[in-house]
Task: inverse folding
C-alpha cells in the first residue's frame, strides 16, 4: 500500500495519488493532516496487529509519502504557545516512529533531519561544495532552472539544461540529496549550473513526466512477497502459460 | 577553553560552571537569551561584553544545553541558526550535537532502537490517539515526545481518553536507576523513592552509587554510539532481576544526582571530554 500524508494543497502528491489509484490501480490512500489527526489509532510497539481498523499498521505500508508542511493543520489554535508546542511535538514524535516502521519513506524521517542546523543555508552550501557542486554567489534573483529529483532520476522542463549541467554535476546533485537523506525534492540552479537553493518537496513545475517518474519510482518500491507490481493489463487476450507450455497428455 | 551554551536559569549549567570555577577550568558562557544582543559571533570569533574576542579555534569543546528557543527577532534567529550550524557541523568536539539529540523527540523511535540490545527489556508500550480505552492492568501515561510530563499516576481499572498521541506503558514497579554515560565513563545511581516519578517525590529520595552488570554498561555505550550521543542520562528500572529501559535523555539534568555523591564524577567526565581536542 502507498499512503500519502500531507496537506490538502500538495498538488504533486495529489496528482501522484490519483495516477497510482486510478491508472495503475494499486492500493493507495490519501490522508490530509486534518483527517489523519482525527483518526483513532492504537499501536503497540513491537507488534504488527493493532485493533483500529481504519488505518493499516505501518508494517502494511510499502511506501509512505510524508510532507510535514501543513502539519499544524487542525491544531488547537485557541491554546497557548506551550500547549501548541506540546501538541506539535506529540504529532512529530508519533510520525518519527511511524515513518521509521514503514518499508520505504519519502522523504525519510531520521532523527537528524529535525535539527535546524541540517537545513541552514550554510550547511547546504557546504554540503554542495563537498559533493562537487558550485554554489551561486548572486544574491539577487536570477533566472533559475528547476530540476526535480525523484529517487535516481532528474527531470527538468528544459532538457537541454541537463547538457549544461553535465554528467559530473548531475552525479553531484544525487550525492547532495544522498548526503541530506532526501529522495524527492527540487534543486534550483542558475543558468551556469550553480546551485541557488534546494527544496525538500516538489512544489514547482509539476509536469506530467514528473508525476509519471514519481509514480514509477513509488511503484518500484511496492513488493508483494518477492515480486514487484508494474501495472494493470489493458487487454485480456493473451495466455499466462502458452500452448507450448501446456503439452497434451498422450 | 570550553564553551558553555545555555540559559542562566538552568541549574545544570550553574553546577557545571561552578565546578569549572572551583577547578580553574577555562570556560566561556553563552547565555542564549543574549545571543545577538550583548553576545555575538562571526566566522572567526565570539564577542562577549567587556572582554577580548574568543577565537573559535581556541575552543576545545562545547557543552550544549540548548533546551528551549528563546524569544528572538530576525537577527537573533539568524544567529541561532548559525550557531546550530557550528554545533552540528563545524566544532569538532560538541556534547551533544543538536542533530544527535533529536532521537528524544520520539520516545517510541528511541525505544525501537533500544530494543535491539539484549541486556534490558522494553516495557509493553502502546501509542494511542483519538480513542477512549478501559485500562485493565497497571499502566502509566506519558508524553510521546521530548516534552516533559509528570508520571505520578498509575492507572489500574479506569477509563481514559486519548486525544493527541501519548504513550500508555506498562507500570513496572522496582528500583529506578539513572545512568550517566559520558564518552566511555559511566556513572550509575539507584534512586529509592516513594513516588512513581521520583523527580516529583514529596519526600527526599535516597540516591546511591549503583553497580551495573558489565553487559548493561556495554549496551549503554553502544546505544549512545547508535544515537550519536556522547553524553546521555539513561533511565532504567530494575524489577524481578531484570532491567527495563525507559529512555535516553540527551540533555540530562545530572546536577541533582551528582550533588548527592561523594565526588563530582559527571562534571569531571564532562570537563575531561571537552578539554581535549578531537581530530
Result:
Amino acid at each position: 500500500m502507498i499512503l500519502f500524508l500531507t496537506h490538502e494543497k500538495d498538488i504533486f502528491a495529489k496528482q501522484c495519488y490519483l495516477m497510482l489509484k486510478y491508472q495503475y490501480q494499486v492500493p493507495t490512500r490519501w490522508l490530509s493532516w486534518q483527517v489523519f489527526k482525527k483518526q483513532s489509532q492504537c499501536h503497540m510497539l513491537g507488534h504488527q496487529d493493532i485493533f483500529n481498523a481504519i488505518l493499516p499498521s505501518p508494517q502494511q505500508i510499502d511506501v509512505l509519502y510524508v510532507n510535514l508542511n501543513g502539519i499544524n493543520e487542525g491544531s488547537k489554535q485557541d491554546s497557548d504557545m506551550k500547549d501548541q508546542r506540546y501538541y506539535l511535538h506529540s504529532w512529530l514524535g508519533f510520525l518519527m516512529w511511524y515513518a521509521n516502521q514503514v518499508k520505504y519513506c519519502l522523504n525519510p524521517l531520521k532523527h537528524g533531519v529535525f535539527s535546524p542546523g541540517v537545513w541552514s543555508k550554510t550547511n547546504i552550501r557546504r554540503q554542495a561544495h563537498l559533493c562537487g557542486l558550485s554554489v551561486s554567489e548572486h544574491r539577487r534573483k536570477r533566472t533559475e532552472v528547476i530540476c526535480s529529483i525523484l529517487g535516481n532520476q532528474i527531470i527538468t522542463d528544459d532538457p537541454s539544461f541537463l547538457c549544461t549541467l553535465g554528467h559530473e554535476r548531475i552525479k553531484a546533485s544525487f550525492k547532495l540529496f544522498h548526503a541530506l537523506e532526501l529522495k524527492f525534492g527540487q534543486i534550483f540552479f542558475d543558468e551556469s549550473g550553480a546551485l541557488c537553493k534546494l527544496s525538500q518537496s516538489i512544489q514547482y513545475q509539476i509536469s506530467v513526466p514528473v508525476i509519471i517518474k514519481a509514480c514509477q519510482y513509488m511503484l518500484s518500491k511496492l513488493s508483494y512477497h518477492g515480486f514487484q507490481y508494474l501495472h494493470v493489463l489493458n487487454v485480456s487476450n493473451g495466455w499466462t502459460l502458452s500452448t507450448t507450455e501446456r503439452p497434451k497428455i498422450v | 577553553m570550553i564553551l558553555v551554551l545555555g540559559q542562566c536559569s538552568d541549574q545544570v549549567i550553574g553546577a557545571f560552571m561552578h565546578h569549572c570555577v572551583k577547578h580553574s577550568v577555562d570556560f566561556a558562557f553563552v547565555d542564549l537569551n543574549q545571543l545577538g544582543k550583548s553576545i555575538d559571533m562571526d566566522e572567526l570569533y565570539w564577542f562577549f561584553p567587556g572582554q577580548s574576542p574568543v577565537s573559535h579555534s581556541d575552543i576545545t569543546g562545547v557543552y550544549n544545553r540548548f533546551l528551549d528557543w528563546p524569544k528572538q527577532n530576525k537577527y537573533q534567529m539568524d544567529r541561532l541558526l548559525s550557531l546550530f550550524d557550528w554545533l552540528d557541523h563545524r566544532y569538532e568536539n560538541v556534547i551533544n550535537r543538536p542533530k544527535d539529540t533529536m532521537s528524544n523527540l520520539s520516545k517510541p523511535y528511541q525505544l525501537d532502537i533500544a530494543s535491539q540490545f539484549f541486556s534490558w527489556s522494553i516495557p509493553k508500550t502502546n501509542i494511542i490517539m483519538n480513542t477512549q480505552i478501559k485500562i485493565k492492568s497497571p499502566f502509566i501515561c506519558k508524553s510521546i515526545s521530548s516534552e516533559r510530563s509528570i508520571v505520578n499516576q498509575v492507572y489500574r481499572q479506569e477509563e481514559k481518553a486519548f486525544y493527541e498521541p501519548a504513550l500508555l506503558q506498562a507500570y513496572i514497579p522496582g528500583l529506578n536507576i539513572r545512568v550517566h554515560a559520558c564518552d566511555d565513563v559511566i556513572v550509575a545511581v539507584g534512586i529509592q523513592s516513594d513516588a512513581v516519578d521520583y523527580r516529583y517525590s514529596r519526600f527526599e529520595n535516597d540516591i546511591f552509587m549503583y553497580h551495573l552488570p558489565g553487559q548493561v554498561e556495554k549496551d549503554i555505550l553502544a546505544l549512545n554510539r547508535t544515537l550519536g550521543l556522547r553524553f546521555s542520562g539513561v533511565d532504567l528500572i530494575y524489577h524481578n532481576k531484570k532491567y527495563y529501559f525507559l529512555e535516553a535523555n540527551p540533555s540530562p539534568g545530572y546536577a541533582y544526582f551528582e550533588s548527592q555523591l561523594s565526588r563530582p564524577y559527571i562534571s569531571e567526565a564532562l570537563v575531561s571530554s571537552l578539554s581535549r581536542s578531537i581530530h
In short: Helices of chain B lie at 11-22, 74-90, 98-101, 107-114, 214-227, 255-258, 265-275. The longest helix of chain B spans residues 74-90. The longest strand of chain B covers residues 231-239.
